[in-house]
Design goal:
single chain, Rossmann fold, two-stranded parallel sheet, globular
Amino acid sequence: METAVVTGGSGSFGKFLVEKLSRQYEVVNIDKSTGFDVTNEADIETIVQKYPRIKVLVNGAAYIKYNPIEKVSAEEWDAVFGVNVKGTFLMSKHLLPRLKESRGVIVNISSVTGRLPMVNALAYCASKASVDMITRVLSREFRPHGITVFGISPAMMIDTENSQKKLGSLSRLKHLSVEDLLEKEKETYPIAHAEAVAGLIAYVLSDENTYKDLNGQTIDMGGY
C-alpha cells in the first residue's frame, strides 16, 4: 500500500481527512501531537527515510491567532508563517525525492482568507495567500517530474472544535454572540463542513486523471 503523509492530521479537520484517506493509503500523521515539527528539517527527514513509498503529501498543518495589528508581535507573526508557509515549503522540499519516484501528488490546504480579507487575522490571511502561490509555482516546477500539485481553499469549517474556538475569539473581539457573528458575516464569508472537505480530497485522490487535471489549481469550497 502506498503512503499518504498528512500534516496536522490530529486536528479537528485532520481527523476526518486521515479517516477517509486510510481507506486508500497507509496514512502517516505529522504534527506536534505525534512528536513531529513541520518546521524541523531533521524531523521531516526521519519520515523520508522511514517511508519509501510516499505517493501523497497533504500540507494541512495550520496555525492562527486573532489580534488587531497593533497587538501582533513579531513572534506571533513568525509562528503563523512558520507553520503555514515554512512548513509547507519544507515538507514539499524534503519529500520531493519520494514524490519523484512515485510520480505523486501534493495537496496544499489553503483558506478562502487567502483572498477574502479577515479583520484581526492579518498574519493568517497573508500566510494562506502565500500557500496559494506555493501551489501555483510548484505545480510548474514539479510538472516535469510527473508530480501534481493542487490546493483546497475551504471556508471556515464550522463543525470543528478549532472553528468553534475561533468563532468564540472573534465574537469576543467584536462584542457579539457567536450566533450574531455568523448571521452578520454570512453574506461576506462562506462556511464549509470538515467532513465534506475531507471527502472531496479523498475523492479527487482516488482517481489519477482527476487530480492531474487540477494541477496548479486551488479549489474553493464553501457555501453562503
